[in-house]
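Q&A log
Question type: sequence-to-structure
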Amino acid sequence: MYNELGRIRTKKLKLELNDQPTKVKNRIDLLDVYRGFAILGIFVVNIIIMNSTFLNQDEFAKQWTSNIDQITERVLQLFFYTKFFPIFSLLFGLGISMQALKLFEKNKLSSSFFTRRMFFLFIFGALHIIFLWSGDVLNIYAILGLLTTIFIKKSNKLILILAAIFLFFPFYDQVFEYLFKFLNFQPETYLSNYTGETVNQIIKNGTYQQGVKLRLLEYLANIPVLFVFLAPIALSMFLLGLYLGKNKIYESLESFIKQIKFPVLLTTIITNIYRILFLFVFIKLEIFKIELFRTLLIKLMVISDVIMGSFYLWFIGWLWYNTKWRKILSPLKYAGRMALTNYIMQSFIGVILFTSVGFKLYETLSPSQTLTIAILVFVFQVILSKIWLTYFKIGPLEWIWRCLTYKKLIPIKKSTMPNNI
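Response status: OK
Response body:
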């Protein structure tokens, strides 16, 4: 009788486990390290904008003339700006394909699943904009992520061709300028009544409601940056990540990293030479004033930055598999496993640091100070993430997103399976 009860209990447990959302049997730590690294880089860039919005950033930056701040600014230009957004986009596309493959293997792949998943990501983004920060990219990720799912069953060749087109096409400014005129959409008007001084006063001394209004207007005013500059990069990287996932590159990362060593190093050297020439030579030439040449030179700079971001991933992977640096890099995985939570948390910390509801530090910090704070905040997030993941399976926002996606309450606390089951 006891044996029969044991068999029934075991069978019931197996049925319950099969009904749970798809799980990663052996989590790939390196992918989480990549995500953690991307979260760090994104915050290093975002905190600069949090400290001084686009409206006043150039003028504000002129006052920092000390050697340490000049060096910091060069470090940011050479190693951070436009490098980490592509990384995170690539990993997002890879995540979509990995999840799609698992669902496909269980014969559960459906468009409704990804539609629901991206819809709730869009809601997260909207709430992020309203309550915390206008520099949100989750809205773009949700829209483009849903578009990417259309290509899950398409050929590898088509996916790579489209990824290249979206990355290399240089005339998005002209296309969207025509589209905006056709739609009579004038994003520059949303902040036309604001000056750097009025923005400063609202952020540092205004009410929270005034801050909400300003964030909404900033988001609308920044639509050209989001959809003309960032969206093509994101979609290209989503598709590249989709390609890598469809071909299960994540199952043989070590050999893949070895295989691409020469092309990665060669393209990185070439594009870095171009990046240095662009920053210190080309922008000072008369030819840079001609719109066509300026557009092409800037596009080449963007491509070079994307390649630099890809080099970061390759280099971290090479260190991971070939050196003792794995122990040093390993803590990044905790922040990476809670990437969504940490991304939103960084904006919350930004509100506390810079606005009237906190320390009112807006436009008071130098580049070197913002970089230092970003690193300290990230170290705090790594420690906090490790503590959280000691007791829970995933981050709190990841858990909410998963529950909404699967339309069920999913256990979040870790539990030890009894040995006698």
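Response note: Residues 50 and 350 are 7 Å apart (CA to CA).
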